[in-house]
Structure formats: structure tokens, C-alpha cells
Amino acid sequence: MQKTVLLTGSQGFTGRYVRAALEADGLKVVGLVKGNAAPGDFAGDLLDPASLRAIMAAVRPHYVIHLAAIAFVGHADMEAFYRVNLFGTLNLLEALQAEGAPVEKVLLSSSANIYGNPDVARISEDTPPAPINHYAVSKLAMEHMARTWANRLPLVITRPFNYTGVGQEPNFLIPKIVAHFKEKRPLIKLGNIDVVREFNDVRFVAAAYKGLLQNAPANSLFNLCSGQGHALQDVLALCEKLSGHKIKIEIDPAFVRANELRVLIGDAARLNAQLPDLPKIGLEQTLQWMLNAP
Q: What residue segments make up the domains of the chain, in order of their start?
């Protein structure tokens, strides 16, 4: 019997890659999107419990991957982080249980931003959370809320570290940098450049979601990370090398966040133990892919 996955945010940047990975494994994917839905998918609003219940009754999913969220840290509407990321997730879980969907696993996407600025070289799942922005607080609140459902639904919580790839919105850092090099612009305005991050590949993240959905035990927690950090200057230097174009960097105070995370590198031991065959995609390979994309 073909299993059905309900994928929220299926038309988003990450959702498109996750969908492709799941369908390549023979799973039936039904997308839940806000707005116009493709044939076979459903349009619904996480803030409309009645529409969610109707969708759960129609789909009756075996698996759920919940990606839909407000994910841009600089989003202007602070309250929207909590409405969508916290209460939208609550509505989704309530609808699943109310309609008695035959759910075998629910994978919820949180964020590595919940860790804040811990004084450790590698952040493990046991590192105490200390969020420093509303996006991170909303995601941590979502995690705590979800755990109250642990005896009713088989949940897996993931904390993705930074990742990028073809199709990511240009208001995110790496696509912005890549676009400047592709267009041979003479100048780029950036905020804090003295930061170190993982810049993983969205295809790696999609493979991790697929693997955890199929293999992770219920009520488990995983960092989605590679453990490989890169200074922002390294990204700029690689783009210069790959494109053959040199660019001037200007620090724009408008882009400098007072509560910027300085270093965000994960400990991948738990993820690697659960999924030892995840693809290894280096930053240079990801940037080359993005620079070559039409």
C-alpha cells in the first residue's frame, strides 16, 4: 500500500526539494499550501482550524512533514511569528487528532536559532536553548507546545541549521550574495560579516527529512546539521573564485542586527548515527550549483 505524506509548505523553497525526495522513494505527497493549490494538493490556512480538519478528513495522511512557517528572522510583524509558527502548528496537531488520521509519524521543523549564542564549539541537541529573537522564541514555544502531544501523536522535532540552494528567496543572505556575483555587480551591502555559520545544501536537508520520517523513533529530536562551519568571508571568497568576479563589500548599518547570532555550528553525531548515508555536499559545490542556475 502506498503511504501518503501531508507536506505543509510544499510550494516553498524547502518543500519543493522535500517533495521530490519523497516522491522519488515512492511515497504519495499531498501538499498543503496557503493560496492556489496544484491539482491533488489542498489550499488551507494554518490559522483556520475548520479548513484544517476538512483537509485531514480528506487526506487521512500516514505521515506529516510540517514545514510551513514564517522563517525570515527579519520579518516585520512580530506577532505573526507566534500566530503562524506556534498556534498554526497547534491547529494542525489538533486537526490531525480530531479527525483520527492514521498517522505513523509527524515531523515538525523547528530551528537551530533556538540555541542563541551558546559558548560551545559544536551545538548538540542537549545544549540549553537561549533564543534571542522572536523567530527563535516562536519556534522554541512550538517545540514545548508539541511535547504536550507526545502521548497522543508520534512526533519528531528537527532543528535545521542554515542551508541554501537554488530557488531560495533573495532576501536570504546566500542567494543575495550569489545574485550579486552572477550579475557582476561592483558592490554589495551587507550587515554583520564577522559571523560563522553552517551553510548546508537544501538537497542534504531534504534527504535528512525523508530519512528521519521513515527511520527516526517517535518523540525524538535531531539537529539537521553537518558540523561544518564557514565564515562569511569564506563564502565571498569562494564566490569570487568560482565566478571570476571581484566585488567591493560595504557594511550597511541598516542590515546590522543587534541580536545577531555570532557562531552557529551543530554537532551532527546524533543525525549521523541515525542516518549514516546522508549525502555529503560541500559549500563550494552548492555555490557552483547556484551560480550556474539560470
A: 4-164+200-226+267-278
CA 37 to each of CA 27, 42, 48: distance values in angstroms, whole numbers, following the listed order:
19, 6, 16
What stretches of the chain adopt beta strand conformation (E)?
Answer: 4-8, 28-33, 42-43, 63-66, 105-109, 155-160, 163-164, 187-190, 196-197, 200-201, 220-224, 230-231, 248-251, 263-264
Q: What is the pLDDT of residues 148-173, one digit of tens each?
A: 999 999 999 999 999 999 999 998 89
Using DSSP's 3-state secondary structure scheme, residue 14 falls into helix
Please choose, from the candidates 131, 150, 153, the residue with its C-alpha nearest in 3D space to the C-alpha of residue 140. 131
What single string gives the DSSP state of each residue in 212-261?
HHHHPPTTEEEEE--S--EEHHHHHHHHHHHH----EEEE-GGG--TT--
DSSP letters spanning 28-46? EEEEEESSPPPTT-EE--T
Put simply, whether the predicted model's pTM sits higher than 0.85 gets the answer: yes
Contact status, residue 232 vs residue 262, Cβ threshold 8 Å: no
The architecture that CATH gives domain 4-164+200-226+267-278 is 3-Layer(aba) Sandwich (3.40)
Pull the grid cell for residue 6: 501531508
Angle between helices 232-243 and 173-182 (to 10 degrees): 30
Task: Report pLDDT for 76.
Answer: 66
Given a cut of 70, whether residue 104 has pLDDT beyond it is yes
Strands 196-197 and 230-231: antiparallel
| One-letter amino acid of 117 | N
- 7 strand-pairing partners: 31, 65
Cα(34)–Cα(222) distance, integer angstroms = 27
